[in-house]
């Protein structure tokens, strides 16, 4: 069963734009990130897509994260001018990549 078949009847696919690649994709193919409510300037992955605040969507790869950091895309997406800490997003992507590689072997 594909992800689009899992959508409830009557629901449409929500399209979002990746802040790194600028590609428009269905939201289930992207990772939503938000600014932490407890730590200023820390970007966190929003896996359940329920955290409050403005979200920024990114293709869930380390390459996309590197591109977004180089282009300062997180700052633009969150409308902040200060430096943002993306360590938690990077750790999540590293963990996910490691798990996927383990399943392939």
From TrEMBL:
Family matches, as InterPro entries:
YlxR, YlxR-like_sf, YlxR_dom
**A Pfam short name:** YlxR
YlxR domain location is: 16-81
Question: What Gene3D superfamilies does the record point to?
Answer: YlxR-like
Name of the protein: YlxR domain-containing protein
